[in-house]
Amino acid sequence: MDKTLLSIGHGYSAQALSARLIPQGWRILGTTRSADKAAEIAATGVEPVIWPGADLGALIAEIPHILVSAGPGRDGDPVLNAVEDDISRAAPHVRWLGYLSTTGVYGDHGGDWVDEDTPLTPSTKRGQARVEAEARWQAIPDLPLHIFRLAGIYGPRRGPFAKVRAGTARRIIKDGQVFSRIHVADIAQALDLSLHSPDPGAIYNLCDDDPAPPQDVIAYAAELLGLPVPPAIAFEDADMTPMARSFYAESKKVRNDRIKQALGWKPIFPTYRAGLAAMATSES
Q1: Nearest CA to 145 among 96, 86, 89, 93?
Q2: pLDDT more than 70, % of the chain
Q3: Which residues, in sequence order, are bridge partners of residue 203?
Q4: How much is the pTM?
Q5: Which backbone phi and psi does 96 adopt, to 5 degrees?
Q6: What is the DSSP string of 16-65?
Q7: 138 within 8 A of 90, measured Cβ to Cβ
Q8: Is the confidence at residue 1, as pLDDT, over 70?
Q9: Minimal CA–CA distance to 122: which of 252, 17, 244, 14?
Q10: Cβ 114 vs Cβ 67: under 8 Å
């Protein structure tokens, strides 16, 4: 059981971690809601667990490493709502629990830098829900909790290339807007390092070294594909969904010094240029 991980909400980042751990001899169990997704998970070497449905409490009681990727919904944290008592009982026996949060907990800082000591002042309902979820996890006694605050995630099958190729990509311009990003491979690397060097109570930002305006990313993706750079559209004139517009409500640059110093983490893709170039090469 030493090299066994329960992945609750086995999504994009957890899949990347599994791809690193399975060759090291790890057994991974990943939860999903559907039989179709279960078949996809099984094809990667992960043991699928359909939940709700399975006895998640029994698995929590016996598996020493747990990764929680499921985010909060309207009713709060779905994992704690269902199995908080089981987690509390198992806490003294768990060796590592990783919770994937978001840098959205910091809110808007007008393009200035934030780090793990920055007060949590989210400006969106999603960010506030994350702050509340983090606090609930932190309140469980004896739980070896590790919180990872993720910047905008990109990677294989999740990037700007499809929209650029389809001609639907837009360079939306909002003065001073800047985002931090993280390649999914760098998330997996960080989680792997943390699993092997637990530090209960740790909070880490996960982002690359190059915060940048979103329009620059779209432009570089077009250049890599040899396609015309999409025209610029002023934020005020852009036709956007409320969800998409909410991402532009916050502007900040995120520091990653703590995880570099604590775990020796060094991003494989320190800039969006490096990440997109590698993706373009692999796709071609």
Answers
A1: 96
A2: 99
A3: 147
A4: 0.96
A5: -160, 130
A6: HHHHHHGGGT-EEEEEES-HHHHHHHHTTT-EEEETTTS-HHHHHHH-SE
A7: no
A8: no
A9: 252
A10: no
